[in-house]
What we know:
Blueprint: H1 3-6, E1 38-44, H2 71-83, E2 88-93, H3 102-110, E3 116-121, H4 126-136, E4 140-144, H5 150-157, H6 162-174, E5 181-186, H7 195-205, E6 208-213, H8 231-241, E7 244-246, E8 257-261, E9 267-271, E10 284-287, E11 292-294, E12 303-304, H9 305-310, H10 315-327, H11 347-350
Parallel strand pairs: 1-2, 1-10, 2-3, 3-4, 4-5, 5-6, 6-9
Antiparallel strand pairs: 7-8, 8-9, 10-11, 11-12
Helix pairs in contact: 2-10, 3-4, 4-6
The structure holds S-adenosylmethionine and iron/sulfur cluster (2 copies).
Amino acid sequence: xxxxxxxxxxxxxxxxxxxxxxxxxxxxxxxxxxxxxxxxxxxxxxxxxxxxxxxxxxxxxxxxxxxxxxxxxxxxxxxxxxxxxxxxxxxxxxxxxxxxxxxxxxxxxxxxxxxxxxxxxxxxxxxxxxxxxxxxxxxxxxxxxxxxxxxxxxxxxxxxxxxxxxxxxxxxxxxxxxxxxxxxxxxxxxxxxxxxxxxxxxxxxxxxxxxxxxxxxxxxxxxxxxxxxxxxxxxxxxxxxxxxxxxxxxxxxxxxxxxxxxxxxxxxxxxxxxxxxxxxxxxxxxxxxxxxxxxxxxxxxxxxxxxxxxxxxxxxxxxxxxxxxxxxxxxxxxxxxxxxxxxxxxxxxxxx
Length: 352
Ligand code: SAM
Ligand code: SF4
Ligand code: SF4
């Protein structure tokens, strides 16, 4: 593979769209012309693990229960978003499977008619819930798993164990929630020696392993640039052993840039938000568990829908608030020059 092929960059849109005025009809468009069709819904900021790159080991402060949107409120926002052209939903958190009632929520969500309802999970409770979730209408899962070595897995995630997660991936595949995508946050000097092991795992299992760059969204505030392993370096390492070719075109809307093994052995992906962000085609908006719309992972400003809803607003008011939130999205990473700044909230509070 040539150096250019290894470059996961997608173009960054830097011009404002044709109209300086926010449209009140049509798709959810931002000021740069990006149309938003993907909604990430954080159903809780709580979690049963404490991954080093996400939460502090002790002392994490969670939202008060009354501040978290009820399933009815989450559903209402999803319904309005669907009416605004949102086609796909991803449930996340915190850990979505720790919220009681999640299966019924998926069932209700499925009735709204989205093209795809996915979930990102740490999979600690997935073996038990994969069947009910699939029956309720969940289409697929991404499972986070940062090491294939038991002791290292435990050290990174601080709680939980590898065997449970591997068994859950099998259960998800069997229940039709596959092929499971496997999210690996690569940390320099911690698990970056497992890149080839994970590539081999992708080849053996048929699962798509996605290598994610460590972002400054950790609750510990331990992120430094030196702890990031660039996606380009990961691709080079794999390509030397199993030659790769890029699947994703430069203009495709995708969080991960996809590569396949040239010998037909499967696929991997990279999420290069730190070294080569893909904001130019970003089509996502987020709803936090406490009811705020975020137009970017790194956004500083949020739109509070919970207070609006609890004050008795009608659906058109929610529509306008969502439109405004999307319209005000910056070029990328929460800014107009793509500067990477740590937002106030960490990953588990935003919904990754
Ligand atoms: N609890 C679920 C899980 O771990 O899959 C879903 C929520 S988690 C916040 C969503 C994704 O964000 C996971 O794949 C996780 O590995 C990733 N993540 C968390 N903190 C991160 C960070 N600082 N940098 C990059 N990815 C991160
Ligand atoms: Fe929990 Fe997921 Fe954050 Fe790990 S990455 S602490 S599993 S929310
Ligand atoms: Fe979208 Fe923000 Fe992520 Fe860029 S950093 S891809 S704009 S959410």
